[in-house]
């Protein structure tokens, strides 16, 4: 083959390759991208839902408290812990429910601000503060356990619902009804219990100089064989506004929690820690009214922190008065 023929065939082959090459077309940019904003940046579409005021409060509160854990693991009814967390962060119950599209009485949001340490005794990390709330669990003793009770557990929380004391108690009498379906107490749990004397001394020390919150707190103090100055007690079962809801009778803690706090407690086995938190929250809701009623009866509040007479005292050990000669 001559050189000119080779050159001609080569040109034909090149032309064939050129015609078989795929054509890549450039995509035209959308008008939204091409149109510049006034500040010179390109416009970018975004689909971000506007957050509500409640959502912003919740986000800020969660960022502020890194120890708080929020989860959507499973639906759970509102608890006293959740209600206290919301109130501490100025989030109304209705806003909390609206932010997470749930009803105020059935929230799928779980916020474990409080880590319950069952039977821990006295907490070494939590400050008791001025106000403490107490709740106790009882078991049945003697031949008529429906009518005779003994102390089996004591729980105390501070103003913010943080656990400062929790202990099982060894009853002095033989237990004939553990009332597990209500009290949550079992024979196995009482094997780890502290003696009554130790728990009594621990609680007496905690009561010193404190404002004691309770629901029918007289029963708790009687079970502990302890006294406390009446002027330093705030009893949610005796608060006039709460008694009106029960037609002038003593309202149940479960009923008040549902009506006032919109939370469910005592569904099955009771938790004395949760009950103490609910009681504290009921006091906080009406704190001004409680103090007004208290001042009418007792006058201006005293400085209980420096008054030695405020110490929790064991009943039956009164000092004898000296006779004048």
Fold and architecture overview:
This protein is an alpha/beta fold. The protein has 13 helices and 12 strands. Strands 3, 4, 5, 6, 7, 8, 9 and 11 form an 8-stranded mixed β-sheet that branches. Strand 5 (149-158) and strand 6 (163-170) form a beta hairpin. The model is unreliable at 32-51, 62-78, 104-113 and 304-311 (pLDDT under 50). The chain has helices at 3-20, 31-34, 53-64, 80-88, 93-99, 180-183, 187-190, 196-207, 217-224, 240-245, 253-261, 272-285, 287-298, and strands at 70-71, 110-111, 121-122, 131-141, 149-158, 163-170, 175-177, 194-195, 211-214, 226-227, 233-235, 313-314. The termini are far apart. The relative contact order is 0.11.
Percent range for β-strand residues: 15-25%
Structural class: alpha/beta
Measured as a percent range, the helix fraction is 25-40%
Number of helices, where a helix is a run of at least 4 consecutive DSSP H or I residues: 13
Coarse morphology = extended
Helix and strand sequence:
HHHEHHEEEEEEHHEHEHEEHHHHE
Brief write-up:
The chain is α/β, with parallel strands linked by helices. It has 13 helices and 12 strands.
Q: Main traits of this protein?
A:
325 residues, alpha/beta, 8-stranded mixed β-sheet, two-stranded antiparallel sheet, 13 helices, 12 strands, extended
Question: How does the SSE layout of this entry go?
Answer:
Layout: H1 3-20, H2 31-34, H3 53-64, E1 70-71, H4 80-88, H5 93-99, E2 110-111, E3 121-122, E4 131-141, E5 149-158, E6 163-170, E7 175-177, H6 180-183, H7 187-190, E8 194-195, H8 196-207, E9 211-214, H9 217-224, E10 226-227, E11 233-235, H10 240-245, H11 253-261, H12 272-285, H13 287-298, E12 313-314
Parallel strand pairs: 4-9, 6-8, 9-11
Antiparallel strand pairs: 1-2, 3-6, 4-5, 4-7, 5-6, 10-12
